[in-house]
Structures are given as structure tokens and as C-alpha cells.
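My current task is to audit a protein record that another person submitted. What it holds is a sequence and that sequence's fold in C-alpha cell form. Thanks in advance; the entry in question is below.
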Amino acid sequence: MANNPLSTESILKHMAEALPTHNKEDTDSDISSSYEAIALFSHACMIAVGFRLIGFGENQKTEAECSQLAPRLSSKWNASFGSHSFLYAHSQSSMQYLVKIDRLGGKAEIRGIGLGDERISRFEITAKDYISSAALPLRITMTEAGEEDRSNLEQKLKGIFISPSRVQDLASEFKLTIIQKLMPGLHKEGYEEAANANAGTAEASRVRDERAGNDRPRHDPLADPNFLPQPARPYPFHDPLEQQPRRPIPQGDFPPPGFDDEYDLQRPLRGMAPPFPGAGSPFNIGHDDLNPPGLGPHDPLRGSFVGGGGGLGGGMGGGMHPDFNDPMFGGRGGRGQGGPNAPPGARYDPLGPGDGPRGGMGGRPPNPFGGFGSNDFI
């Protein structure tokens, strides 16, 4: 059985053969970055299965120069940093094939397309999962006479990969995603296509994830027939995320002093507080107007749920027009002695100063200004 053209040894051999020849005065490195190593690896895979290089871009066809230098690459193959392009042809097809390797952050995207087909095949890898940056830059050994010594070049190229198995993992993915998609049915001695490209791609992805240190659990508890869920817990139960109640601050022998409300922040607004305990609120004005006339809040037929006071026929104020007998003004809710203007049990709204019912001031406060007649406010 013929050797596999995409074996680790075959790929390293084609990579070593592809590195350009150095001039005596040339001191540049041959591979300076992980992305150049991945690009050289991709080119070696294409050459290994029978493709031939005819240029370095879709519009940069230099077939004569490439044929003259083969299997070496031109010195301009890595002229652009982070982006490498190779244009190929194959004896079993009339199409031309473009392969591009681009740097995207810490990843390398490898794309391939058959010109005229317009179907792009691509995959991406994390460079540090395959290439050891500690082995870079790489340079061909030079003798004292200024000549190249490539005897240990394949070993050096092998050292830039994390391990030999990573070389084979990357070769399998390149074969399934690029070679097999660009040219299905390719005939090459020792080359075999995967029976199911999708299954092979999934397997390669699984192996790559495992080697990259993926920490996903291998055991699926839901797929285990012996797995039993935990029993339901009654409510309430201890919730570790529940906020714990605050502990009271210990007062000790001397409790801390109260808040010094020097700006009267804790006092109610002026005019909104009752003048004495039990006095009505100004917001309750008019509540007794909801009661039957003359009964106040004491309806003998049904209970009353509104404020007010007094007995049958004796109101405590609470009408829409309060007088000075209303508790809001400091009165005690008593009416006058009655008369034609205000018979017992009736509410009388004064028409003006001095028009109040007989019986005195009631709960009206004294006039602080005095001397203006009937002690009325001005």
C-alpha cells in the first residue's frame, strides 16, 4: 500500500522543500510567525496531492517563475504580513484554485475556492492550539562558508508544532474542508477521500476541542437511564440568594440620641397638621355632605363609613362650608342655641360677619387684632 501523501512525514518534507533558498548575504528568518507556518503547511498539503503553484493571488499569476523555482517558493510568498494567497492548477481539472490564509485576531482562517465555481470552503483554527511560538522564528542553518544546511530542517519544522498529532489533526481538517470540497474525486496514489465529509469534520472538531482543553463534561446525566432527579422541595425552603434580615443595632446601656431635626424635616407641613389631637384634617372637608340631610353620619337605616361626628340632629361639622365650630378651627363641634337662622339639627352657613347663630363664639378662636366689631377676622 502506497504511503499517505498527507502523512506527517510527507507534509514536513514538502514544507522543507518549499522554503526559499537563501543568498549568502541574506539574514532574514524563513518563518517568523505562527500564521506563516500555517500558510506554509497549507501549501505543502496542496502540493502533496498533486496541485502545482502558478501564482500568489487571483490577479498575480506567475506560472513561469513558479515552475522555474519549484519546488521552492518565491521569496515574496510571505511579503504581506497576516495574509497569504496561493493560486494553483491541477492536471485533473481545467479550473484554477485559490487558497487564502488570513489572520483574524488570534485565529487563522483558511479559505479555498475554485475560480468560476463561486463556492467558498473555509474553516478557522486558533494558532496557539497548533503552533508553538517558542520555536519561532525559524531559519535554515547556514555553514561557515555561507551555504545552506537543510539536513535538520524537517526536524526544525516538526518542532514548531505543538506535537506530531497536531500536524495530523490539521492535515485531516484541511483535507476534508479544502481539498475534498475544491476537487472531489481526486485521484492520487495513497490518497483516500473520507466516506462522510460532514462526519469527518465533526470528528476533527471534537478532537480539536478536546486537545484545546475544552472542559465540557463528557457524562450527560440526562442521557443516563439510572439518573434520578432530585425530589421537589416544599416551600418555603432556604434560598442561599435570599437577602438575610438585618440584625438590630445593639443599643447598650445608652441608646444613641435621636435625629436632630434642625431643619424640621420630620414635621408635617404647616397648615396640614390638626391643631390638637382629634381635630379633623383639612382634606376631609365636605365628607358630611354625603350623608342624608339632618342625620349626619348616623343614618338609622344603614351604617356610615365616612368621617364625622355628633349624634342625630347634632353635627360635628364636616360640611363643604365649615364654620368656626368645626374641629379644624379648634372648636368642639357644638352648635349654637338655635334660632330662626339655625334651628336645632340644621347646618347654617353664615352669609357674612356677624350673621352666625346665637349662642356665642362656639369653638371660634379669639381675634388677635380685636376692635374690628364682633371680633371677626379681617
Summary: The CA atoms of residues 66 and 300 lie 116 Å apart.
